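hey so i finally got around to running the thing on that chain from the lab meeting. sorry it took forever, my laptop kept dying and i had to restart like 3 times. anyway pasting the input first so we r on the same page abt which one it is
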Amino acid sequence: MSTITTEELISTTLLRFATAGSVDDGKSTLVGRLLHDSKSVLTDQLEAVQRVSADRGQDGPDLALLTDGLRAEREQGITIDVAYRYFATPRRRFILADTPGHVQYTRNMVTGASTAELTVILVDARNGVVEQTRRHAAIAALLRVPHVVLAVNKMDLVEYKETVFAAIAEEFTAYASELGVPEITAIPISALAGDNVVDPSANMDWYGGPTFLEHLESVPVSHDLAHCHARLPVQYVIRPQNAEHPDYRGYAGQIAAGTFRVGDAVTILPSGRATKISGIDLLGKPVRTAWTTQSVTVLLEDDIDVSRGDLIVPSKDAPATTQDIEATVCHVADAPLTVGHRVLLKHGTRTVKAIVKDIPSRLTLDDLSLHPHPGQLVANDIGRVKIRTAEPLPVDSYADSRRTGSFILIDPADGTTLTAGMVGESFAAPEPVKDASDEDGWDF
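ok and heres what got predicted. didnt touch it at all, straight out
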């Protein structure tokens, strides 16, 4: 029997990563350089970039144009929306989210990093760690991204000095470690010149670590959720009621985590009713087993009430249902989130009415202190909230499941996303606060 080598295993893995950083730190240029030097750019794409660059009077191609696709982005020279790129090398496949750097687009960084296994935070070597750098580090820690790369860019503009790189790396590592980031790798680069992006730099012989691409190709990826708590949010109830399938009743959805098997004892939440899986259909064919990210239809032994928004879980591993949720949140809307705010809370496929009961604290990015009871969170604030929902929800801790431990708050008036929330403790968890409002009566 042949064995799979480490090289073969890495080549079969997929790494999702996101780039972040302050404005003009060179994120789009880094991504363009990475795609260009790794031979991941089609000829017609490169020719189009060269034409636009020549029209602007530039001597060479502006590689940032490979990712900045919106007209406003090209005109202003900044990234506004999240740009997703798919590419591969002989060693690994990648999905990249190039996120904006401007503070008003921090919400887009939350979107891009929410599914990432690695976040790249760029720093301009001339400016060092700035407030937006700290904000992006905090968000990476909040979203529990397992790997963070500090890319100290524009080293060519500081004469490739090791002392400049070392000082920035030390400051950032101390800050991110205090946030609880589990792994930090610092790499000195020049995206414009190509130093240490794909090929080693001849200008920084004092650096003995991997290039940016080498690190992306070799970083351990452990995003196999098949062994996590099994969770299936029901998206749709299938009842054909035709001659071929007169009694068919299936519950369709994408498995958020774990593995389901025919014969498993399961519980439907929030009702708490128990039954067994009698069948699983995948792509129109019956299977015995299904696992994370597969979209399936589950059939149950008993005819019980199951509808969109319910959660199918193993009976022996069911989360508790609750109407009181404590979470760390990143507020992404322009309008503030205030105590007493009536919102919609979307968790998985279920949306319920809710009230913000308390905002115990807001995180101060400079020194990671907690400002108690701020009364509101404004755009890009990170803080703790207490929420009361109109109906019980089966929530996991975000530390246990990034899928079923997260939620968003929505403005019921216009459908605007207000806040991204992560259930349970985090680096921003304050001391328990006893507030008189906890004893107040609520109308649900």
